[in-house]
Design goal:
Blueprint lengths: L1 E6 L3 E7 L9 E7 L2 E7 L6 H14 L6 E4 L1
Parallel strand pairs: 4-5
Antiparallel strand pairs: 1-2, 2-3, 3-4
Length: about 70
């Protein structure tokens, strides 16, 4: 539904609002700061948060992106 991002050469943030699909109504925020990455997912009610956390972790691991923290609420 909406997307916003900002950053420079060392840090940046992305915020994505889902308008359709399994995460409709949820938001995803990704912060990167000098190679350190934090992912926050605010899932809509009734969503299996643990499954989404595992899915995000697996996808980032496949891409060899080191993530300091994944928070799913």
């Amino acid at each position: 539904r909406r997307i916003a991002w900002a950053g420079d050469g060392r840090k940046g943030s992305l915020r994505l609002e889902f308008g359709a699909g399994a995460l409709a109504g949820g938001t995803l925020v990704v912060h990167a700061d000098d190679g350190r990455v934090k992912v926050e997912l605010r899932a809509p009610p009734g969503t299996d948060a643990a499954a989404w956390r595992d899915r995000i972790a697996a996808r980032l691991e496949e891409k060899r992106i080191r993530v300091d923290e994944i928070v799913v609420e």
